[in-house]
Amino acid sequence: MWEIYKFGGTSITKNGFNLIKQIIENRNSKIVIVLSAVSQVTNILYQLSEKYDKNIFEQLKKKHQDLMNQLKLNNQVIILNKLNDLKKLLVSKKYETEEIVSYGEILSTLILHHYLKQDTHLIDSKKVIKQNENSFQGILENFQSEALQHEVIIMQGFISSDLDNKTCVLSRGGSDTTATLVGNMLDSKRVYIYTDVDGIYTTDPNVISDAEIITNLDYQMAQELSAMGAKVLHPYSIKPAEEKGIEIHIKNTYNSTNPGTIISSTPSEKIAVINQKDVNTFHIKSLNMWNNYGFVHDIFKDFSDLGVDVNIITTSQFVVSCTTDNNDIKKLMELYNKLSKRYEVKLFQKSNMITVVGNKIALNNNFMEKLFLVTKNYQVHITHFSSNHLSISFIVEN
After folding, report:
1. Which of 166-203 are b and which e, b meaning 16 or more Cβ less than 10 Å from the residue's Cβ?
2. Could you tell me if 157 and 34 are in contact, meaning their C-beta atoms sit under 8 angstroms apart?
3. How big is the CA angle at 175 (ends 174 and 181), to the nearest 5 degrees?
4. Do residues 116 and 94 touch, judged by C-beta distance below 8 A?
């Protein structure tokens, strides 16, 4: 039996690596350790992939050298050589962005592998996680052939490859998905996600002092929370766990005795509130929409052509309203001007999206009555009910 442990960027520290040591020493089963890049490294790599800058590269190098110094791993030639390989690639300008950003996880796993100094096996995630246009696919045979003789496996999160073995990356935060995909492949009972918070809260504890940890959460509500802006877990990571009934345990690297949040099939009775900032809202109006067809395609083709994401959508007889997280003002104004040639358009910038999430919440008449009594005091641009009855969102003035 395998158990999967994923450590996020804020956990790639001396404290985090010492916790990994403890987990290995106390294990009762075979384990897989999935690592993210050191905190902020992926952002630096994206910058470097756009344009090589010597000073930015030195920042990248220093982050890894500082970690090695804390771990007393000075002058690890194989890690320094890997950084030199990256520099040569950047200077050559002959690379794909995915190849560059994959170095964050490659470096963190190399450092951990050398720090542990025991029988651990480092696997290249590109050999195990394959990606096609519509889904991710774990190649179990490759994993088994490499892992059969080992008790402890280390592998990169975030990284995969396509069916032609070209480097791909999962979307940002995709190391969570790596962990649950591997758990799915190996029929694991549990996947542990280690981060720098105690679990998933009912709301942001930095804003609301009496926010509570949600100790037990079901898959559907966890996915809704993640998709609506809760940053603890990646939305794509839920499905592989749900398919096999795998428990996801959210744990704090720096408070590891705290039970955290367990995500499973057991329905949750909690209600959570998420405040998503800097949301931009479009209202697109035309009398010609009434009893007509084709206008939705016409509108959202402009969004697609300009690469502007769309989150929630509401419609009436004459108005289509939607939100986007895109904050590129130049691009938003280009979209506004393009749409304005055919429609009456309003753009509300930097609003807040307040989302209330709970099982069958939209069917709770008593709660809904109280909720609307509160919202009548605010300028609300959109009220959105999710079709799965799990969430209600209000786009309000900042």
Report:
1. ebbbbeebbbbbbbbbbbbbbebebbbbbbbbbbbbbb
2. yes
3. 90
4. no
Q: 213 forms bridges with which residues in the sheet? A: 201
For residue 327, which of 351, 344, 346, 305 has the smallest C-alpha distance?
351
Alpha helices (H) in 228-319, listed in sequence order: 238-244, 295-305
d(C-alpha 95, C-alpha 193), whole Å: 32
Provide the CB-side half-sphere exposure for 336 (13 A, CA).
Answer: 17
Closest CA to 4 of 254, 252, 241, 224: 241
Q: Which residues pair with 195 in a beta bridge?
A: 252
- Percentages (nearest 5) of helix, strand, coil residues in the chain: 40, 25, 35
* DSSP string of 16-84, one letter each residue: HHHHHHHHHHT-SSEEEEEE-PSTTHHHHHHHHHHS--HHHHHHHHHHHHHHHHHTT-TT-HHHHHHHH
What is the sign of the dihedral through the CA atoms of 76, 78, 83 and 84? positive
Q: Among the residues of 228-288, which ranges form H helices?
A: 238-244
SS3 track for 77-96: HHHHHHHHHHHHHHHHCCCC
Asked whether 345 and 318 are in contact (CB, 8 A), the reply is no
**Terminal CA-CA length for the chain:** 50
CB 232 within 8 A of CB 217: no
Pairing assessment for the beta strands 129-131 and 30-35 based on DSSP bridges = unpaired
* pLDDT in 10s for each residue of the chain, 398 residues: 899 999 999 999 999 999 999 999 999 999 999 999 999 999 999 999 999 999 999 999 999 999 999 999 876 788 889 999 999 999 998 999 999 999 999 999 999 999 998 779 999 999 888 887 767 777 777 777 777 788 999 999 999 988 888 888 887 778 999 999 999 999 999 999 999 999 999 998 888 999 999 999 999 999 988 887 777 788 889 999 999 999 999 999 999 999 999 999 999 888 999 999 999 999 999 988 877 788 889 999 999 999 999 999 998 889 999 999 899 999 999 999 999 999 999 999 989 999 999 988 878 788 888 888 888 788 888 888 888 888 899 999 87
Closest C-alpha to 136, from 173, 185, 186: 185
